[in-house]
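Single Protein Entry

Contents — chain, fold
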Amino acid sequence: MLSDWGYEFDVLSSDIDEKAIRSEDLRTLPLKVATAKAKALRQAITGPAVLITCDTIVLHNGQLYEKPKDKAEARQMLQAYGLSPVEVICGMTVTNTATGKSVQGMDSAKVYFHKIPHRLIEDMIEHGQIFDFAGAFHPEYPPQAPYIVHMEGKEGTVMGLPRELTEKLIQEVQQ
C-alpha cells in the first residue's frame, strides 16, 4: 500500500514473539505489539529513516481473533461471521531515527458479513490463504469479498495500514 501512495521503503522483520505480548485490554494490544516491533527494529537501523511499525487485531464478540492456528479455529471464526460485526483495530508507531521522535496512533473499523456458506468455508480452509490473515479474513480476498455487507471505517484500517493515520504520524515525526 505504501508503494501505491508513492513512498519508497524497505521492509524489515522484527522477529519478535507477538503472542508473548498480551494485554488485559485487548484494544491496546495492537499498539503494544507495534511498539515492541519498533523497539526491536530501531537497533538494526543505522542511518536516518522513518520507521513505521504496526499491528492489527480482530475482535468478534469480545474475543481476540488472531491468525487461525488450525483448521478448526479457522472454521469457528468464519462460521461466526454473519452473526455480528467484526472489529478491526490497528495500532501504529512511527519513529524518526535521526531525531528519536516517536509517535503512536490507533484506528478501528467494523466489518459486517453475510453468513458464509459451509462449502465456501471448507474451500477457503483447504486453499490455506486465510491462515495468513488475522481473524481468517481479508476484505480483498476474492472468495470472501461478496460476503462483506459493508464496512464502518476506512478500508486501509481493515487492510492493516490506515492511510490517513500513517501520513499524519509521518508528518508529526518530521516536524
Notes: The beta strands are 50-60, 63-65, 86-96, 102-113, 148-152.
